[in-house]
Amino acid sequence: MIQLEAAASDAGQRLDAYLHARLPEYSRSRLQEWIGEGRVRVDGARQKRSYQLRGAEQIQVEPAEPPPLRAVAENLPLDVLYEDDAVIAVNKPAGMVVHAGAGVHAGTLVNALLHRFHRLSEVGGELRPGIVHRLDRFTSGVILVARTDTAHRDLAAQFSARKVEKIYVALVHGNLKKERGRIDSPITRDPAHRSRMTSRLAHGRTALTEYTVLRRFKKFTLLNVRIGTGRTHQIRVHLASLRHPVVGDILYGAPASGLGRSFLHARSVTFTSPATRQSVTITAPLPRELQEYLDTLAVQGS
Predict the structure, then answer these.
(1) Gap between the Cα atoms of 280 and 224, Å rounded
(2) How far apart are CA 186 and CA 229, in angstroms?
(3) I want to staple 99 with a disulfide (CB 3.0 to 4.6 A). Which of 81, 128, 140, 270 is the partner?
(4) Extended strands (E) in the chain
């Protein structure tokens, strides 16, 4: 346990900034994790990292064991859709993080992959073995994993050249006027909300999203979505920019849905296998909770 006492000169400082100045051997993000986990107490009480010191507070810090510098194997359920000598395709469930980071160090897709396959590509580093592309935590569906460094570089080149076709299914709020559409607004980090991305600024990375209406409900629209690029939160940002946020995506303006996840599913991926040089299309069925949600809308006429 580390004991600290804030001085009068510390008044007005944020708690996380104060700790980072006093404990420079720990990163600010690490200290923020401890605050969120309740490992930091101010006069015996938990506080937010933005808490402003008044001076004279007693602060207790309980350091946690550092996260592993490399991913470790865990015996977790894994739905393998396809595998050959170069590539593994997995149906990732919503709620599972792809690899360690942002305070998550266990229960990831990488942990499960290492237990099942033992050895993966090392191009992405020891915390992200095999990971060529990612899906958001609350997005389900097909994700490709490289078994070898050669396969990783081959797949990365296909993604970069936009030769990989990625199709998603998304349910959005409201009724889109057009049966199909194209969104090509650039995407960048939202300067006002660092956890979000935005397409409302004049700059950013090129992004291309195309959609086709699959089914209309009274208050919702089911879409088939194809992305030509793979930017962070791309589909979520682009659809929210049309004022039709993905159901369950509270971060981008959707109301609470009771679904417990976003209604966004990576339905299929088409790529060329580095092992066989054959075109391969992998499809993941719509998860049961999403199909049941659609069934309920149909019955209610929503």
Answers:
(1) 20
(2) 11
(3) 128
(4) 2-5, 40-42, 58-61, 80-83, 87-92, 140-146, 165-173, 180-183, 188-189, 197-198, 209-216, 220-227, 264-272, 279-283
Any idea what DSSP says for residue 199? S
pTM of this structure: 0.79
Residue 280 to residue 87: CA distance in whole angstroms? 11
136 annotated active-site? yes
Tokens for 190, please give them: 């939202």
Query: Measuring CA to CA, which residue among 266, 257, 198, 261 is closest to residue 232?
Result: 198
Closest to 29 (Cα-Cα) out of 16, 41, 42: 16
Choice among 10, 16, 43, 136 that is catalytic: 136
> Domains in the chain, start-ordered, CATH in brackets?
2-61 (3.10.290.10), 80-300 (3.30.2350.10)
For the stretch 214-235, pLDDT in tens is 999 999 999 999 999 999 999 9
Task: Give yes or no for a contact between 142 and 271, defined as CB atoms under 8 angstroms apart.
Answer: no
Q: Copy the structure tokens of residue 185.
A: 């607004």
Place of tokens 């879409």: 223
Q: How far apart, in whole angstroms, are the C-alpha atoms of residue 290 and residue 265?
A: 9
